[in-house]
Amino acid sequence: MGFRRADGPAAPSQRGQSAILALVLLIGMVATISIGILLVAGDVMTSTEQQAESERVEQAFVELSKQMATVSKDGDAPKSMTFDAGQKGAVTRTATGEITIKARNVNETLTMGSIEYEGDDGSIVAYQAGGVWRETGNQTRMISQPSIAYSAEEQTLSLPVTTVSGERELSSGEVDIRHNSTDPIRNATVVEDDTVTLEITSKYYRGWALYFEEEVGDASVQNVTSLSGDTGYVKIELGVQELDGAFDNGVTVSGEINDKHDAIDDYSKGTTMPAINSVIDDVVEQSNTTENRTWAADADTGPWVIDGSEGTFEDGTYFAEGVSATNDVQFDLSNGNATLVVDGDITIDKSRFEVSNWKNASGQDRHLKVYTTGDLTIAGGEMCVDDCANDDDSEVDAKQLQVYGRSDTSVDIGAKGGSKFEGIIYAAGGNESDFDGNYNSKECKDMQACVGNNAEFDGSFVGTSIGNQASASDFEYDASLSGYEPNAYPSGYVLPPGLTHLNVAVYELDVKNA
Q1: Beta carbons of 310 and 339 less than 8 angstroms apart
Q2: Are 495 and 219 in contact (CB under 8 A)?
Q3: DSSP-derived 3-state class of residue 122
Q4: Domain boundaries, the chain
Q5: Alpha carbons 194 and 402: distance in angstroms, whole number
Q6: Percent helix, strand and coil across the chain, each rounded to 5?
Q7: What is residue 241's predicted lDDT score, i.e. its pLDDT?
Q8: What span, in angstroms and rounded, lies between the C-alpha atoms of 327 and 306?
Q9: Of the N and C termini of the chain, which has fewer Cβ atoms inside 10 Å?
Q10: Coil, strand or helix at 342
Q11: How far apart are CA 405 and CA 279, in angstroms?
Q12: 92 CB contacts (<8 Å, ≥6 apart)?
């Protein structure tokens, strides 16, 4: 009996069905690939169109900024222009930020409006007070600078704050710009020998920080902080802080002196000197480099704490996260000045912290400047100039050791008795409430500084408050400090620019479609 093979030749109908199926599959593949190509091409076209629109809008905003600046200056002369606001349009907002200006006899807060465009990709092009920025997520690009004018040669800052008068939508087409009002800040004129502080709160705070960093310098930008929502804060300082007359007395404080034992006889109460917190913070940031930690066992990883085992330091700049001296530390100034920057506390514990060889062959004085973000404690030790054993008041060398602290720095001289400090200490600008319960003794309780039993202080202290714990302590003012105006900035520190004249005005404009 014969059998038919199951895999024998296919019948004609079967071959026809296979060909049709293959054709259908081929058509499906082609259609799928075509749709994919169309989708990708569509995405590319959409992205390209969005980019093209964004570029057109940016240029329109730059031109709008120029026209608004012109109307602000010309007063009653209106302007019109063709404005590209994209497909979705733009919007004017009356309150999207504030600028607070602080200087001698000046404390003004100005409200800033803005004009905003938001693209389909979530990016924003914004005009505010003359500046145009693009915000993309957490990134900011400055398209056009604000109309602020700073002249280092003339030491003048002109701050025209141009804002809008109402909230409305702007569509592409003709736009009219008209001057509505001008509000000059009349007492913001001459600010010679003073620091001007600008505090800006805005959705576009990163753009403002970027502008001042590029236009004025990094040293002018003291703080950049993100706040709640999408707003942030920028603090800018212009002008060099001077400490005129700071050391004309043995003690100069804004608050109380608790001296029941009459050891302090050369003092000034109720005298407020400026805090230099921002200077110290900036010095810490600039000095925290590997080069300034070469004394450390491992300059890259730390710990960077001077404990006395390093012995002698020479001229130059040194950065440490603390000084905890249980052995003697010496700064030999034979070859020049020295700077010690401490991002932390300084404790001299039954040891000597000494400045030596501070007069060069030509008779010129050299000095050590110490900057600290923390507290200063001398516990049974000595922090002084030369051999620390000089009892002749006429030979006090306070200028050669200068300690600068923050407004909340506490100073304890005599924590273990028998302590000595020779030099000047500047830690001004604090509030008395900063030091509630600061020390155990009743004389020093709630004080910023305390001179303890058998302690000796030679030089000058400037701060918020001071207490003298015992009659056995000795406080002597270095009379050579009278009229002394030290430079509170270390060698090599990039100073904020000087400022003499400040011109401020708010210009309110109507910006709307024709």
Answers
A1: no
A2: yes
A3: coil
A4: 60-194+499-513, 251-481
A5: 23
A6: 20, 40, 40
A7: 65
A8: 10
A9: N
A10: strand
A11: 10
A12: 113, 114, 115, 164, 166, 167, 168, 170, 511, 512
